[in-house]
Every structure is written in structure tokens, then in C-alpha cells.
Design brief:
Helix content is about 75%, strand content about 0%. The N and C termini lie far apart (about 45 Å).
């Protein structure tokens, strides 16, 4: 298991090296007052300490993505490890850090507002609709997945309908109450359960000497599905995820100091990458290769793999605890998905969220739509989620590139992964049955042309924005707060 262990080590090294480099490029200002204090309303804006913010951020971003995605990505073989490691260090963690820090510099603004400011007003409206769609899809996926896992543990003493209803009730309460009432108090404990379960499975893989395959560039997928672009959309939350761009503003509104950003935003993405590595390794090593894994996935989906792997590694009691740790992930991302959707809509229509009635009439229609979507096939939902998710990541990376370009800083750290993922997501939607259904060779050509056009348009807009000196930050006026 040299590949597995080296990959974990590289992720940790990445935090202390490339993470430090990205922080230096951005340029933190420890003297700048953050939105947690400037805009404090004790609902969405309020200061919380680094430890609490870090655990909340991890649970916000780590839904079923870093578990279900790597399990399905394991069908491609050890090449999936490369995307998790390098995607996490050079794309995902950069994406999360820049989104969080730019949001801090702009009153805790969400992605649609940032896209409007840095990419134009048309993009604000497009991204607003896109982000809300993504968040409703995320919330729905993160209702269905834990409900299935809980139902499998119940041994028939309850129904799927009651479990779904209970999760929705929790989501409604967590979405409406101030962030420190439930999320701020419960998440640190749930975060501990998540880490214990992941480390338990990972530790047992090492202790038992599980046959984790070594690095190979061969595509081992039983259906011979192409690595590009499918792998880069299948494994999202463990490497790069646009969903995170909708979550980081929640914590940008509770961060006490810009210096805490690397640990909260970059660091928690690295932690998610480690979780993804563990589950990808478990899926590759415990089920007799891709063919056996594919058969189990066809029978019971990723939830069955989680349950089976946990029991094999940790026994009945430990396996149950590990499954509970996995259940925590989607539930604690689903509630903040709906919370983000509420905040984005409220910002868009400029409706203050101090009064609970204002929160309620925005949130309830979102839950009604999501409840209807729970009846849609999970695999179909996941395909739409994967494309919408990575397309959102592309937008966030271009926003980060624009910010750094205007600031005359090293914009390539965001632009290179932005160009790569523009190509990947465009290729996917041109080729996929849920998209245009074109042959793969035409999809590659069309995506390459589209990517070149987007890049050219970016440089034209970026040079204009730099000339016009678009302000990089807002919300603080005192003389000590100039970055």
C-alpha cells in the first residue's frame, strides 16, 4: 500500500507547503475587521473560534461526495488516487481558500454576488439560479443517501417515509435558527464522530494489510468508461467541488481573523481529501477488484459499499459506529445546503434575515421542491449534481482568477485548474446522455473550442476590470483595513 500511504503524506505536505504559498499569494491582512464583527446580526454573522469554524466547515463541505464519489471513482483503479491528491492540493483547496477569503473581503458575499462583481451582472443572475439549483439538488441527494443508510440499520422497525420526514424536520430547524444555536453547538461533536469513523476504517486498512493496489495509469473501469472527463466529475468533493463555494461564505461570516483562513478553508479541504483517499482505497481493496465492486454497486449502490466495508473492517459494533459517522456527513451538509440557498435568495432579493418569518417563507418552498425530488432515481440525481457541482467550481475558479488578476497577483494558481475543469465539464455535457449526446471525439473538439473562447473572454474582461480599478473589497471603511 505504498501508493496509498504516500498519497496521504503528500496531502499533509501540501497543506504546509502549497497551502502556505497560496496564502502568501493572496496576502492576508490580520488587522482587517472581518464581517463576523462588522455585520454582526447574531443569526448568520457572528464570531466563532477557529476550532469550531474548522469542524463546521469540514462537515459543511464533506457530504456523501468524499465517500460515494471515491467509491464510484474506484472503478477506474488507482489512477483515481492521482486526481484526489493533486486535485485536492492544486484545485480543490485553492478553490475553497480563495472563495472563502474573497467572501471575507466582500461582507461575506455568496458566489452569485461575487460572480456579478467580478464577472459581470449577467453572470450574477446566471450563477444565482445555478447555485440555488445545485443546493436544492445537494440537499435532496443528502436526504436520500443518509435515509437509505439509516433504513438499512433499522432492521425494519421504521419506514423510509418516517426517516425522510425526521431528516427534513431537522433541516428546517437548522436552516431557520441562528448558526450558533444548532450548527455551532452540535457540529463539533459530529465532526469528532466523522473523523473517528474515517480514521477507524483507514487504520484498519493499514493494520490488516489490505491489498490496496499500487499506482497504475491503466483504466480498469469494467464498462471502459473514459477517464477524461468522467473521473473528474465522479470524484468531486474529495478533489474539487463547486458545492464548497456555496458553503464557505457561511463560515466567512463567522471567521474572526483572516489569518485563520488557511486552516479553515484550505486545511479542511485537505482533511476531506484524506477521507476520500480512505474510502477509495477501501473500495479498491475489499471487493475483488473493479468487477466485484461494480457488481455490488449495481445491487445496492454506494450506501451498500459503505455498510459492507465498515462491517468488514470494524466488526458489527464498530461498523455501525462507522456508518453513523458516514450518515453524519450528508445530513450536516444537507442542512447547510438549504441554509446557503436561503441566504443566497435573501441576498439576491435584498431581504433581511433577522426575523424568522423572513427566513421561513424562503426556506419552505425549497424543502417542498426537494421532497418531490426524493422520488427521482438517485443515480440520475447524482449525474445532474456532478455536472452542476463541477460547473459551479469552474465559475468560482474564474472568480478567483479575476480577483488575483485585478490585484496583480499570481492568478495562474486559480486559472490553470479553471481552464482544465472548463474543458472537463464542457466535454461531459456535450457527450453525456443528460446533455447533448455527441460522440466523444466531437465533444473533445467542441470543449476545446469553448475553453479557448472562455479564456480569451476572461483576459479581455480582466484587462478592462484592472483598468477600471474594480474594488477588490468592501464593507470596512477605517484606514487600517486596506489590504
Amino acid at each position: 500500500m505504498y501508493t496509498f500511504l504516500i498519497a496521504i503524506i503528500l496531502l499533509v505536505i501540501g497543506y504546509f507547503t502549497y497551502g502556505k504559498f497560496v496564502e502568501k499569494v493572496f496576502g492576508v491582512n490580520e488587522g482587517r475587521t472581518t464581517p463576523a464583527y462588522v455585520n454582526q446580526d447574531n443569526v448568520d454573522y457572528l464570531p466563532m473560534n477557529t476550532k469550531k469554524n474548522s469542524l463546521i466547515q469540514l462537515l459543511n463541505i464533506a457530504g456523501v461526495g468524499p465517500i460515494f464519489g471515491p467509491i464510484m471513482g474506484a472503478l477506474y483503479g488507482p489512477v483515481a488516487f492521482l486526481w484526489i491528491v493533486f486535485g485536492c492540493i492544486f484545485a480543490g483547496a485553492v478553490h475553497d481558500y480563495l472563495t472563502g477569503m474573497i467572501s471575507i473581503r466582500n461582507r461575506g458575499a455568496h458566489l452569485p454576488e461575487l460572480a456579478g462583481k467580478f464577472l459581470g451582472n449577467v453572470m450574477k443572475h446566471v450563477v444565482n439560479a445555478f447555485a440555488v439549483l445545485l443546493l436544492v439538488l445537494v440537499g435532496t441527494v443528502f436526504v436520500s443517501a443518509p435515509a437509505e443508510l439509516l433504513f438499512s440499520l433499522s432492521n425494519g422497525w421504521t419506514t423510509m417515509g418516517l426517516i425522510l420526514a425526521a431528516i427534513f424536520v431537522y433541516f428546517i430547524v437548522a436552516t431557520l435558527l441562528p448558526v450558533d444555536k444548532i450548527i455551532g453547538r452540535v457540529y463539533p461533536f459530529l465532526g469528532a464522530l466523522l473523523l473517528i469513523s474515517a480514521l477507524g476504517v483507514g487504520g484498519m486498512l493499514v493494520f490488516t494489510g489490505a491489498p490496496i493496489p499500487e499506482l497504475s495509469f491503466t483504466n480498469l473501469h469494467p464498462d471502459n468508461a473514459p477517464i477524461f472527463p468522467l473521473l473528474f466529475l465522479t470524484i468531486s468533493c474529495g478533489a474539487l467541488s463547486g458545492f464548497h463555494a456555496t458553503q464557505t461564505p457561511i463560515i466567512s461570516r463567522t471567521t474572526q481573523n483572516e489569518k485563520q483562513g488557511r486552516k479553515i478553508f484550505y486545511g479542511m479541504m485537505i482533511a476531506e481529501g484524506i477521507i476520500a483517499m480512505i474510502w477509495a482505497a477501501a473500495a479498491m481493496s475489499l471487493f475483488n477488484g473493479p468487477a466485484g465492486l461494480n457488481e455490488l454497486l449495481a445491487d445496492g449502490g454506494p450506501a451498500a459499499i459503505v455498510s459492507e466495508a465498515s462491517t468488514l473492517m470494524l466488526g458489527a459494533v464498530g461498523g455501525t459506529l462507522a456508518v453513523l459517522g458516514v450518515i453524519v456527513l450528508p445530513i450536516t451538509s444537507g442542512d447547510t445546503a438549504f441554509r446557503s440557498a436561503r441566504m443566497i435568495i435573501a441576498d439576491y432579493i435584498k431581504l433581511p434575515q433577522k426575523k424568522w418569518r423572513s427566513r421561513l417563507w424562503i426556506a419552505l418552498p425549497l424543502f417542498a421542491i426537494s421532497f418531490v425530488l426524493t422520488n427521482v432515481d438517485f443515480e440520475l440525481l447524482w449525474r445532474y449534481f456532478s455536472w452542476a457541482n463541477q460547473s459551479t467550481a469552474v465559475i468560482a475558479l474564474w472568480v478567483g482568477s479575476m480577483y488575483l488578476f485585478i490585484a496583480k497577483k499570481n492568478y495562474w494558481i486559480a486559472m490553470i485548474p479553471g481552464i482544465f475543469m472548463t474543458m472537463a465539464t464542457t466535454t461531459y455535457i456535450l457527450n453525456a446522455p443528460i446533455g447533448f449526446g455527441l460522440p466523444m471525439n466531437l465533444s473533445y473538439i467542441g470543449a476545446a473550442i469553448a475553453t479557448i473562447i472562455v479564456t480569451v473572454l476572461f483576459f479581455r474582461a480582466a484587462n478592462k476590470a484592472r483598468t477600471n480599478e474594480i474594488p477588490l473589497e468592501e464593507g470596512v471603511n477605517d484606514k487600517n483595513n486596506v489590504a
